[in-house]
Amino acid sequence: MKKIGIIVTFIILTSCTNYSQVNSVISLPKKLKEVSGVEMVASNPNLLWMHNDSGNKSKLYQVNLEGKVEKTVTINAKNIDWEDITSDEEGNIYLADFGNNANTRKELVILKLNGNDLITKKAIDPVKIRFTYPDQKKFPPKKKHRFFDAESLLYLNGDLYIFTKSRVKGVYGKTSLYKIPAKEGTYVAEYIDTYENCHKMHCWITAASISPDHKKVALLTHNKVLVFSNFPSNNFFKGTLQTYDLGFDSQKEGIDFKDNNTLYITDERSHGNGGNLYEFSLKK
Predict the structure, then answer these.
(1) DSSP E strands: which ranges in 76-169?
(2) What is the pTM assigned to this prediction?
């Protein structure tokens, strides 16, 4: 009976992988057990920047495609709850310290890391981009209004775009899109629009990325990738949506475009599973 179960499980996993075109690239090093963001190094597509989330060291890791940490950079700022990472055309990195599980944080911050410093230094003093949400008035709000957690960030044309994560039972897939300038300062984020994904916990929006040609925006959940295209200006939710089933659930929290049709995805290591870098093709 056990043998039959093992065979069935193997067939299911294999069929899901083939169907969703997910390939495991590497097992991530132990120091990235709670990996929460991934971003390709601008000057070298074979290197990726990664970081852990809350409760971990304030460090950014440069990892090669063999799973080896090539460089570690200390960020001189506390890791309250680092949730995502993105970059601009000059190679600057933006590290999102806006995790807000309890919806109690009154000031959220994105850390801007100079691209040249990332190459030449072992420790960096970040530029701080602080912001609040225009529609959050209580800290925390009532449980039915706790829509102000976030795990997803992308950069486009001088601005940073934040996708919130719902903490409200029954509407976990709801996400709102906000914009702030990608430069030092304190801002009230500009609300753009809201999208509602499915409503179970695995529908949480946990990471975001935009393709190199700026024509696709990918949002990650624990088992799917939502890809918006043909969007007007910066309202990504008004575009055409295509949903890709990844074929398995895990705590996926990092996504980045390798090229216009290929994604890198990472998941946290939990209960003996995950802790991997995957490659996923949007071409069927």
Answers:
(1) 84-87, 93-97, 108-113, 123-124, 127-132, 149-156, 159-165
(2) 0.92
